[in-house]
């Protein structure tokens, strides 16, 4: 593609706003996604000359690129499937995600061997493809907003190609503490930090993750240099959620869910992508402990757990999903009765059903081992019909904003989580409703469009 040098605002992320599927008749169909970046980009308006650079992820996406099918404002990069798999599955999701979420079982992993080095070379190639595309597309002095751990090397690479650009990088994940980050090979750790520090501005979801990055930069890269660090706590989109959660398909799902739950029972709701970091298994163990230790809840509560597929190319994710299912079945076998299923588990993604569960929630359980923000914690209090109680891990980014009105837990402590579930289920209705109101207000303080605009404005202001 010929360099256009016309875009004034560029976003770069691994997953883009659109994906393609090849139908049986050979035709391509497009599916659009949502999320904070989509709202943000639509808020800046068409006159901003915005471009979203993303990677082709599927065969359908690659076919679309090959046929020249695309959307205005989106450039999809046809990175070869094997290079993408090494960069995305091998490095980003199996190493960087693990480092930032503290997920290794350290007696046996990580092992940084020749295979890792081979995958790392693909991560470099993949980052370079983004940097080159951004360099081609950006107008003089344009603002480039690079997203996430997939693209840590892009700011540094792009800075070399186009010193005129204003470059930011935003981490949607936590950042690792110094002692965990230093597990990475020294040269790789240095390269990652150099890549990030090529940006004019780095954004994080909470002060805690921003401080962790600064500590790593200080320990291994001689400090932040000229790079500014900012905190932007992405909030829930209240208007969208309130309207969407009353649509006909959600009402329909409510009827179905009510049948599964049974009349007069309380609900403990969780909705997650099945990430290892979400701690779904310990959540189930805590619920089992609640039933064991507080028999008054037998027949009177249902745990509605939605664990949607994520990153199923990775065996460890598939195994984790199987473990979630196994433990849920075990609980149902141990405690269930003909009229009561203690755990209602669904693993097929259904957004309308998620919203239906939010509306019915008496208690929301959000207990990640570590999480950049966790938007579910912010969404349920906004949507729940009666105002829910929130059991929240102190290791979720959302804790910084919601901690005061949540019942907080150490995510590893199953006994404490069981006690927190009991406390949440027995909160006096007035207290629960008041807390939920305050939770919803805090959760929606920075809606997605404003979250994006704040970052863009802060980046542009650096020149002034
Ligand atoms: O939730 C953190 C996050 O890094 C998001 O920014 C990003 O959209 C997602 O995880 C990546 O997930 P996936 O591997 O499904 O693209």
UniProtKB/TrEMBL annotation:
| MF GO annotations | alpha,alpha-trehalose-phosphate synthase (UDP-forming) activity
Output the InterPro entries linked to this UniProt entry. Glyco_trans_20
Q: What is its EC number?
A: 2.4.1.15
SUPFAM superfamilies with a match to the protein in the record: UDP-Glycosyltransferase/glycogen phosphorylase
Q: Which organism is it from?
A: Streptomyces griseorubiginosus
Tell me one Pfam family matched here.
Glyco_transf_20
User: Can you say what this protein is called?
Assistant: Trehalose-6-phosphate synthase
Enzyme class at the top of the EC tree: transferase
């Amino acid at each position: 593609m010929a360099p256009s040098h016309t875009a004034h605002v560029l976003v770069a992320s691994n997953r883009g706003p659109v994906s393609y599927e090849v139908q049986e008749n050979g035709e391509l169909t497009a599916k659009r996604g949502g999320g904070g970046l989509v709202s943000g980009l639509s808020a800046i308006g068409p006159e901003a000359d915005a471009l979203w650079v993303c990677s082709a992820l599927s065969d359908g996406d690659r076919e679309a690129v090959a046929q020249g099918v695309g959307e205005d404002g989106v450039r999809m990069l046809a990175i070869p499937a094997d290079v993408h798999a090494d960069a995305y599955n091998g490095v980003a999701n199996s190493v960087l995600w693990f480092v930032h979420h503290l997920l290794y079982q350290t007696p046996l992993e990580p092992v940084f061997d020749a295979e890792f080095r081979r995958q790392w070379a693909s991560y470099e190639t993949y980052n370079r493809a983004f940097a080159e595309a951004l360099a081609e597309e950006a107008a003089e002095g344009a603002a480039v907003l690079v997203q996430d751990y997939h693209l840590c090397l892009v700011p540094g690479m792009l800075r070399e190609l186009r010193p005129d650009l204003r470059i930011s990088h935003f981490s949607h994940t936590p950042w690792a503490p110094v002692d965990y980050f230093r597990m990475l090979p020294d040269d790789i750790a240095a390269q990652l930090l150099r890549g990030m520090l090529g940006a004019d501005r780095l954004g994080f979801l909470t002060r805690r993750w921003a401080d962790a990055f600064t500590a790593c930069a200080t320990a291994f890269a001689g400090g932040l240099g000229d790079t500014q660090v900012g905190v932007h706590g992405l909030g829930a989109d209240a208007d969208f959620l309130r309207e969407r959660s009353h649509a006909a398909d959600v009402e329909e799902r409510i009827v179905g869910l009510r049948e599964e739950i049974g009349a007069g029972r309380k609900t403990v709701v969780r909705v997650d992508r099945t990430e290892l970091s979400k701690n779904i298994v310990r959540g189930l163990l805590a619920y089992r402990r609640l039933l064991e230790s507080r028999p008054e809840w037998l027949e009177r509560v249902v745990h509605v757990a939605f664990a949607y597929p994520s990153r199923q190319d990775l065996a460890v994710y598939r195994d984790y999903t199987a473990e979630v299912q196994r433990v849920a079945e075990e609980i149902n076998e141990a405690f269930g009765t003909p009229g009561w299923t203690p755990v209602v588990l669904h693993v097929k993604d259904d957004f309308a059903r998620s919203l239906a569960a939010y509306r019915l929630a008496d208690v929301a359980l959000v207990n990640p081992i570590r999480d950049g923000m966790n938007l579910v914690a912010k969404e349920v209090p906004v949507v729940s019909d009666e105002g829910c109680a929130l059991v929240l891990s102190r290791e979720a980014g959302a804790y910084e904003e919601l901690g005061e009105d949540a019942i907080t837990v150490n995510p590893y402590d199953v006994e404490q989580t069981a006690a927190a579930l009991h406390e949440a289920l027995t909160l006096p209705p007035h207290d629960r409703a008041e807390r939920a109101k305050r939770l919803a207000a805090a959760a929606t303080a920075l809606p997605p469009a404003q979250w994006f605009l704040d970052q863009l404005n802060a980046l542009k202001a650096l020149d002034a």
